[in-house]
Design a protein that fits this description.
2 copies of one chain form a homodimer.
Chain A: H1 10-28, H2 35-42, H3 46-52, H4 56-68, H5 79-108, H6 112-139, H7 149-165, H8 172-183
Chain lengths: ~190, ~190
């Protein structure tokens, strides 16, 4: 047993920090949360954090990536269904994480290093899921071989980020409209 | 003549403030520019500013709206050409104003009142131009009557904002790809 002064055991420190990051960044926005705030909230020492993450940015991105990872990426069925189902889950998720993600995107505009991490660790892995759905549909000839997967991905991610940044709702109805508009591209 | 202590004549104060706002916000980002900075840069008194604009936000939005207004909204020709031409001009414009606009979008995430002004005075008027192109094309039956103009507009604006916020390039090639992908929706 390595309990220290009421701190969570070391193997609980990672989850405690991830959950502190989710909570505080959702409440205050990325820029208003310091490393010290995270340590206090998680009841964890500085060394414990830095053994796991090189910086606040990496910890926070992992905290929200983890949440996004819970979206079931079920690939069975026609691409229209696959994509609508995925976006419907994603949008439900974004309604919860939206304020935090908006603050991450805002912070990334004034911090090139954070933007790079945000792109690489958060946005690109999500874009890859959508692209892989589309590429599989092209492979099984459900979508035309000239289907522009990259632009479609930009339109999908762009459309929901734009709506989210403007404070407009993301719901199942928009998931259906967006999927329909993007996939008709191939008819 | 109403020259006062080397200040520009009053009828030059508006343009001087607009140009100061463009310059300073482009250099420093919206949040790092104060009203006092704008007055100093334009060589204009506080009252002169407030006779024209109720706040920094309104002045800055006008400064960049003015620039966007210079894009020729030529409506002759097939919708594919009209939209490609418009987006090509817009993207060239965004390559110059991009850093400032990214800072406006970032600031809007932490300031609900500014977000409302940014939507109403800046984003919606631009969206209207694109929507009117599409609506006209639907009217003259160049686009199917079921064409989803609102979602198409979200995809267009979303895609280029998303690319811009991620620091990715906007060029004529992307204008063509985006227009092609959005308009194929109707075939």
């Amino acid at each position: 047993m390595d309990k220290v002064l009421g701190r969570p055991r070391d193997d609980a420190a990672g989850p405690a920090l991830l959950s502190a990051a989710r909570r505080l960044v959702s409440e205050r926005g990325y820029q208003r949360v310091s490393i010290q705030n995270l340590l206090d909230e998680a009841g964890v020492g500085r060394q414990t954090l830095y053994r796991r993450w090189p910086s606040k940015a990496e910890l926070v991105l992992d905290a929200f990536l983890d949440s996004a990872g819970r979206i079931p990426a079920v690939t069975e069925g026609p691409i229209l269904e696959v994509l609508t189902r995925f976006l419907t889950h994603l949008f439900a998720n974004l309604n919860e994480d939206g304020p935090a993600l908006r603050s991450l995107m805002a912070s990334a505009q004034e911090d090139a290093k954070f933007l790079a991490s945000f792109r690489e660790r958060f946005l690109q892995p999500r874009a890859k899921i959508v692209k892989s759905f589309l590429e599989q549909a092209v492979k099984r000839r459900e979508l035309n071989e000239n289907f522009d997967v990259d632009t479609a991905s930009d339109m999908i991610h762009g459309a929901f980020w734009y709506r989210m940044l403007l404070g407009r709702p993301l719901d199942a109805a928009f998931a259906t409209k967006l999927t329909t508009a993007v996939l008709k591209v191939t008819e």
